[in-house]
Amino acid sequence: KPFLRIGCLLCARRPQGSLLPPQVDSMAAPELQTMGDVYGSSTRIAARSHEPLASLSFWPFAGAPLPCCSCICCSCLVPDTVRKRMYVRIYDNRLESNIPFAPFMCCTCEEECVTDRATIIYMDKAPHRGGLCCYVIPCRCCGTPVIFEEKPACCCLDLEPYCGTVIKAAPANYFGCKKYICCGSPCYTSCSYPLFMGAKNAGEFLSVWRGGAEAYAAR
């Protein structure tokens, strides 16, 4: 009975048409409205322009299902449904890309069967800056990160039209150290990982990308 009495008192004080007590109904709305304004308001992700600064061009075999298939011999495995949806664009505040996957390769005739793998990376995150060790500690003790192009070659022969250029990223430049102390390729090439394969105008794209990243850092 005491529980019923308290319930009756609450029902008696509650205004008609309201399912909440007056205290909660009058105080929660302004607080929720203020917290809701915070979402998406970071100046680090704010774009000054919605037009891309540059777009990456690809060879016809780009978008192959496996990295080992990224060559001219496997152009027949890449359907047009993948080529139409594949892009890499740089904006003034982010890198945006979509590397779709066709489960049936050249037999994938409809875009509905293509799986998108869209990614947005803002310029205050890796690979534009050093990553985090254990998701907490910034890794900056080995130098600044590097984004570079790797052109395939055999002796003096340029194999770019047959294999395409690979855009890679390394977490640090290791202060310019070489593999063999004073000669050889840079040490960071050993710990680099591919970002995009089959690129065609990688040098021009990286030049614009670097300028956009420097302008973003100067904000």
Could you describe the 3D structure shown?
The chain has 5 helices and 11 strands; from the N terminus they run H-H-E-H-E-E-E-E-E-E-E-E-H-E-E-H. The protein is of the alpha+beta class and 219 residues long. Strand 5 and strand 6 form a beta hairpin.
Please specify the SSE layout and strand pairing.
Layout: H1 2-13, H2 22-36, E1 54-55, H3 80-85, E2 87-90, E3 94-98, E4 118-122, E5 132-133, E6 137-138, E7 146-150, E8 153-154, E9 157-158, H4 160-163, E10 165-170, E11 193-199, H5 202-217
Antiparallel strand pairs: 1-2, 2-3, 3-4, 5-6, 7-10, 8-9, 10-11
Oligomer: single chain
| Largest sheet descriptor | 4 strands, antiparallel
Instruction: Output the structural class.
Output: alpha+beta
Mean pLDDT: 82
Poorly predicted regions are 1-12
Strand order of the largest sheet: 1-2-3-4
The shape, in one word, is globular
Proportion in β-strands: 15-25%
Counting DSSP E segments of at least 2 residues, the number of strands comes to 11
Count of alpha/pi helices: 5
SSE run: HHEHEEEEEEEEHEEH
